[in-house]
Write a structure and sequence with these properties.
about 600 residues, five-stranded mixed barrel, 17 helices, 24 strands
Length: about 600
């Protein structure tokens, strides 16, 4: 017999009854039933119940084992009584009567339990990640992630894509986040960068004459952490194609992502209708460029109904250039109690509150009447016009925010989500996708300068002619895919013409010399016959997060950093030795206190 096991802890069934077997694994749970020990033995594959009584020579040794000890047991497979069958596990019809046991690895007192899925502080979980990963949910999440990666890789090959690997040590490139820099020992004072994405290399692969590239690529960005984003590194399904337009990318991607969610969605509905929504419309309707379309609420501009009205706050606000009033419809939210709850939400968001109107039965029985402070101030004609515009009726409500859109859109979007959830309007157990298109190529920074708002390598819509006017009006062939309120894909048709690239960077404040300095390899390549090309990248971590039905991306990453970008298990970041610093010709400067 094998030194450690004849079977895994998920392999035994009634067909093995009477056989002598050997199992190895972790002690998941111990139950002492008065002279009879029952132990759930766990390995990577599953759980088998083993038992031992005082007649067994192994009883004394088995009495000493505790949770998470690693043991090897020998024994005979027995059928469970029909009343004791556990249908929830594959081995639930049998148990193993122990004849011998060997402790392979005892465990100290546990800093967090593995059995029971108890909620423990994340700092403890990350410090003892090897224990945390033994828990059923975490083990399932990691297996889901592995299977997703394998499925994506197979599907991409099946669709005619070829996998290539790109460098991990490269040059710094502006991708919208900070680089992780790597000092060069051989070239003192110079630094490599870990790639934020394989952007330039995958474009060079297209110039080199390959087509339909993909890679499960590691990416490195020094970013501030969020629940749905890693602060250091992540993996993405990276894709690039030659001789394509935007619609060709969409047609190639949808079957892959749709199929992925259908395969791993555990029965949740995956909507096949993926609308195209302009970036500007997405912000207007949903307050976000990654809208959750499970929520049917769509916001609207209602400025005209408040202009020169009796509600002085909004009327005066609209006298300022660039301001508007937006309404958030709330079907079936027509009660003062609900309005008070939403006002409390707005105050948590830092607002004094939200204006509201709700529609109820008129006291004189004449039909619907508008109620609330706003209704009294603007009168019945204006409130009725608002109701008609929003398509609302008896028992419905609307909430209002005003000012410059960029100042309140994000709050309005969160209020829309809150209203949808509170009123039960948001669809459950489903996935809804949308392509967000027509992103502006440029934005104005807080310092008033023009800079790229998205990927700097994107082709402007209209080519060179579009770059002759106001940069803030230029749209790019850029697109994101949103799912249930998360961005899961970002991509673009690339700018493959040097003269257009120089002009695009010039408008963002980069002279030709700097473009040559920072992107010389790509500019050079574009002078030697570059095909039109485009692509995208899907965040593996975020896809798995959605499929695992969690909102914390660290739940689907094997060894993640904490919120402060620290690896609590391995002790990173750590201080280098003096010898390492000398070899790199570096020294640290104390930070001012």
């Amino acid at each position: 017999m094998h030194a450690y096991r004849s079977h895994t802890c998920a392999a035994l069934n009634k067909g093995h009854v009477g056989q002598e077997v050997r199992l190895s694994g972790w002690v998941h749970r111990v139950r002492d039933h008065g002279g009879v020990l029952f132990i759930d033995l766990r390995d990577h594959y599953g759980i088998t119940q083993v038992l031992c009584d005082g007649d067994s020579a192994a009883f004394a040794a088995l009495e000493k084992v505790r949770s998470e000890w690693v043991v090897r047991i020998d024994g005979r497979v027995k059928a469970r009584d029909a009343s004791l069958v556990n249908a929830r596990i594959p081995t639930g019809e049998i148990e193993v009567y122990v004849s011998a046991v060997e402790v392979l690895g005892p465990a100290d007192e546990l800093p967090l339990p593995v059995f029971g899925e108890l909620d423990y502080p994340e700092e403890t979980r990350l410090t003892y990640r090897f224990l945390d990963l033994r828990r059923d949910t975490m083990h399932a999440n990691m297996m889901l992630r592995s299977n997703v990666v394998r499925w994506l890789r197979n599907r991409m090959w099946d669709q005619g894509f070829t996998e290539f690997q790109t460098p991990i040590i490269t040059a710094s490139s502006p991708e919208g986040a900070r680089d992780f820099l790597v000092p060069s020992r051989l070239h003192p004072g110079k630094f490599y960068a870990l790639p934020q994405a394989p952007q330039q290399f995958k474009q060079l692969i297209m110039v080199a004459g390959f087509d339909r590239y993909f890679q499960i690529a590691p990416c490195f960005r020094d970013e501030d952490p969020r629940a749905d984003r890693s602060p250091t590194d992540f993996y993405q399904l990276d894709v690039e194609m030659s001789f394509v337009e935007q619609e060709d990318i969409f047609a190639a991607v949808q079957p892959v992502i749709q199929g992925l969610f259908e395969h791993f969605g555990q029965g949740r509905k995956v909507h096949a209708d993926w609308p195209r929504i302009a970036y500007r419309d997405s912000l207007l309707w949903y307050g976000s460029d990654k809208p959750d379309l499970r929520n049917p609420i769509r916001m609207q501009v209602v400025s005209d109904h408040f202009r020169d009205s009796g509600f002085a706050i909004f009327a005066n606000l609209l006298k300022n250039e660039g301001t508007e009033i937006r309404a958030i419809p709330a079907p079936k939210g027509g009660s003062r109690k609900f309005a008070d709850r939403m006002n409390a939400f707005a105050q948590k968001e830092g607002l004094p509150g939200m204006g509201y109107i709700f529609w109820r039965e008129a006291e004189d029985g004449s039909g619907i009447e508008a109620a609330g402070p706003l209704a009294k101030n603007i009168g019945p004609e204006r409130t009725e016009a608002i109701r008609q515009q929003l398509g609302l009726g008896l028992g419905d409500a609307a909430f209002f925010l005003g000012g410059k859109p960029e100042a309140f859109e994000a709050v309005a979007g969160r209020a829309r989500n809150e209203i949808g959830n509170e009123l039960g309007l948001t669809e459950k157990d489903s996935f809804r996708f949308a392509w967000i298109v027509d992103f502006p190529l440029y934005e104005k920074t807080d310092e008033g300068k023009i800079d790229f708002s998205h990927n700097p390598f994107s082709m402007p819509q209209g080519g060179m002619a579009a770059l002759q006017g106001d940069p803030l009006q230029v749209l790019g062939y850029q697109y994101d895919l949103s799912c249930n309120g998360y961005e899961v894909i970002s991509g673009a048709i690339r700018n493959h013409k040097p003269e257009i690239m120089y002009k695009a960077f010039e408008l963002a404040g980069y002279p030709n010399s700097e473009v040559d300095s920072r992107f010389g390899g790509m500019v050079k390549a574009f002078r030697y016959g570059a095909p039109p090309h485009g692509g995208c990248a899907a965040g593996i971590d975020r896809l798995v997060m959605l499929l695992a039905d969690t909102t914390n991306i660290r739940e689907v990453i094997m060894f993640p950093m904490n919120q402060r970008a620290e690896d609590l298990l391995m002790g990173a970041p750590s201080e280098p030795t003096l010898q390492q610093m000398r070899e790199l010709n570096l020294r640290t400067v104390p930070k001012d206190s």
